[in-house]
Amino acid sequence: AKADLALSIDPSDPLAIAANARLLLDTGHHAQALAQAKKAVAVNPNNAFAHQRAAHTALVSANYDDCLYHTDQLLALSPFDPAEHIVRAFQALSYYLKGEFAAARDAYLAINNPKRLNFNQRTLDALILMKLDLMAEARASIAEIKAEFPLLSISIIARGNQNYAPDFFNPILEGLRELG
Fold first, then answer.
1. Residue-averaged pLDDT of the chain
2. CA angle 159, 128, 176 (to 5 degrees)
3. Which residues are CB-neighbours of 56 under 8 A, at least 6 positions away?
């Protein structure tokens, strides 16, 4: 309702368009959400938030090349973005889901503030390490995650997000089972 109100006030405002894209994404309308996110960027290609919304929407919509394009644009527009760790995680996940595991690891290692990494981002690193056949490092990473996050919360987080981004969360659950 608030996004509709913002759009009715100024249908050319990229932030209102991006907000509408998020609502469409959250309600499962991925194609419409991606179109709205791209429209927000088209209205103002220098708006970092519009690129962030387009990157996130593209990632959840399985348009990984689009996600990578928008994350590159976002980082160029806002190199000191406080959410840089999330943007780099979008990149790492896009590369991971494309099967480009070395590029995924490079994107993950480019994160400037590793202290801000959450469960999803840390688990992504463990999965990347597995795909690169660095099993000792993957197991060590999982051990650190388990020490920091109770196993019950890991399972709840992954299962709760399965419908939102199954391409990501289903491998997390499989990876956790494989690594024990």
1. 82
2. 35
3. 22, 25, 37, 67, 90
